[in-house]
Fold Beta sliding clamp.
Amino acid sequence: MTEGSPIAGAPKAATSITLDSTRDEVLAALRAADPAAHEHAERGEWDQLEHHGPAAEQALAWARFHRQLPAQRRQAEHLELEAAIHALGLARELEEAYLGQLAAAAESDGDMRAVLVEATAQQRATATAQHQPPLSPALAPVPAGAGSLHFSVERDELHRALMTVKAVLEPDHPDLGKIEIACHGTVILRVGSPGRGERQSFFEIRLLTTRCIRAGEATVSGRALFDALRRFPAGPIELVKAQGHDVVKLRARAVETNLPTVNYVPIDPTLKGMVPAGVIDLDHLRILLDRVRDVASGGTDASVLHNAVRLSHADGRLQAIAMDEHRLVRAVVDLPGGEPLRGFHLHASDVDRLFRIALAFPSQLHPANAGPPLARLSVSAGKVLTVESDALRGAVSHDPRPAAPYASVIPADLPDAVVVSRDKLTDAARAVVQLFGDEPSPRMLLRACPDRLEVAAHRPETGPRHTSTLPIVAAYGRPFALALDARYLLDALSHGPPTVAVTYDGEHRSGPIALLGWPFRDEKVGRQRAQEFFAHELKSGPLALIMSMLLDEEEDHGCAD
């Protein structure tokens, strides 16, 4: 049967209805041939046409065909995109991850083509990495006695720089426990992991008021440098290293000490092909990373990107997404020009170090009377991300592991919601955590009613209970009951506006709960507008998603009918 032919098996009506007829043409034909059938069709009651005349049978066949057509077209598109992903030649784990995301998007009416776009970008980045030389050559170990340098610095400036570097220093780590002192024009203190180009990461502080007397490099133990500096009073300190000597001499007036140097593999700070990716307030970057770092560090599945943060960018806003086995969090910040960051993956350890140095830098090295500390972001071929200001520079590597299936986890719609004070819900969650003490997975029951939110918890083996009733700002949809881990809820509530919407699908006994910031303070918001807001925030806004625990059969919302 073709779309342009009369429907097979049906007697020819006065005005023939074909599968490619428009709805108006079908209604016009029914109006002329069967007014009673036309009334049903006008109201959308197509199944009522079954016992009418020939024109109605044609119209019914037309309606059934067009009901199935979107699903058929979507299935065909799914198969087409599946074949396109296979044709990219990705690594097996990557291909399976993207096919899983495609299947989830198909099932949830999501954007399937966006999955192919991301998979194609990943394939291009991989191909580029394979055909480009390393960002830096292989670097040989340098003996402790090699090199020389000489500069003078105020003790206070050196101390503040060291306190900033301390944020990323790990004293017992074979690499991150060392500080490389580089003297070329100005003095730089550098901490990081040496390696070949894209696999290295480092952070460096530039001493802006210091000038080199003799250029060179030396590396010392971070702990030893801190200990040595404690012996010096305020004022200028000279640091001198002679070629062939394995000590850096620190001297000031009557105080002098020798600081042993160590063997090291140098960190090459030269990064080529960097593309600008926007300018961000360091405080905003710190807040963004703080919201995702706990979840990023909680993942245990090494085969997918659970213990990492994925960056995305849309509508002028940078999104940071992290996921573990039970939670997902997405933080959002305005960042014009951040498109090159889309698809970049940060390992959890780098997220934590970036957060710590973004926290330390403003308090130690940024002038108190200056404006907010700004940092330039740049990215290189999907390999390295840099964060840079006049006195600070950090470079972290892209984590190449396959992405976790974020798109399949975030629901498109959670129709039921209760809006409540974040502080009051935080107090209730904290009380439940205290009730359970050190026990894992403190179970907390929420019952959402049109006029209140009830919180309950008990320890069956010992008997202590917690119950509280929280006033609500608004409620939408159906009442619901859900159970979840109180510690996860407490962590999710540690950020966000004073009022939050707890959204859920009350038809199911288990499923995800989403916490969304509620921006409408004293404004009365109707159900349709609230649902539009929930759908928008679930798609691209800041959110915290927590998987609920399975409810017992006897537990329900308990609200009056």
Notes: Confidence is low (pLDDT under 50) at residues 1-14, 131-138. The longest helix spans residues 54-87. Residues 137 and 196 are 6 Å apart (CA to CA). Residues 275-397 form a domain with the DNA Polymerase III; Chain A, domain 2 fold (CATH 3.10.150.10).
